[in-house]
Amino acid sequence: MSNYPNQNPSGYPYGAPPPSQSYSSAPYGAPPSGPPHPNQPTPYTPVASPYSQPPSAPPSAAPHQAYGGYPAPPPSAPYGSPFASLMPSAFPPGTDPNVIACFQVADQDGSGFIDDKELQRALTSYNQSFGLRTVHLLMYLFTNSNARKIGPKEFTQVFYSLQSWRGIFERFDRDRSGKIDSAELREALLSLGFSVSPAVLDLLVSKFDKSGGKNKAIEYDNFIECCLTVKGLTEKFKEKDTSFSGSATFAYESFMLTVLPFLIA
Q1: Core vs surface per residue 201-228: b (16+ CB within 10 A) or e
Q2: What is the CA radius of gyration of the chain?
Q3: Under DSSP, is residue 262 helix (H, G, I), strand (E, B) or coil?
Q4: Is-above-0.70 flag for pTM?
């Protein structure tokens, strides 16, 4: 087995930086870049650009830059820096005093940061009960790091985001069952600016359905995790798709650093 690396016919040795690879798959619903193939299926949701345009921000998110109905996270950190230190921050002007008070109660040591368990407790106090995995995804997307701490600015963004998401979930849970099915999830994602294919939609429902896919529906807490995953991966892809063509080129390390945080949250 001493010659194992040389048995790879591609000559790609284990541990060596791989060449850049293009993962070129036009977003579902985007117009094709060339003439249609005779056997190409009709797009599920035709839109004018590779990414569905998000709606305008709700009033509660007005103090912040908005995308898809919730405040946008800060610019992404460079690939290779998922463990970058979190910089101190302050509450944005006009922040609801209740949000400030909630953060201060959670920040018992007065450090200006709260950790994952403190954030989980703070959200629970507002009837936003989430598992630690969802909390970790929230922290990652709003800090662009795996520091698992957030400051006042990020906490405020998380709080307003969850307000918007809860409103969206309740709007599409038309039968008030506490769950949304595949069709309702598709509409909810579209309202956030994300157009996904039926195949991806089925995978999302199977992944986030607490019954293991039997109910074919997802509850509110898993809906948040689903939205975080779709939003995060889409934003990371768009960082590389600078021409908005629906195609992007990732080096191997960049690809791994893009996907793994969503798997290990």
Answers
A1: beebbeebbeeeeeeebbbbbbbbbbbb
A2: 20
A3: helix
A4: no
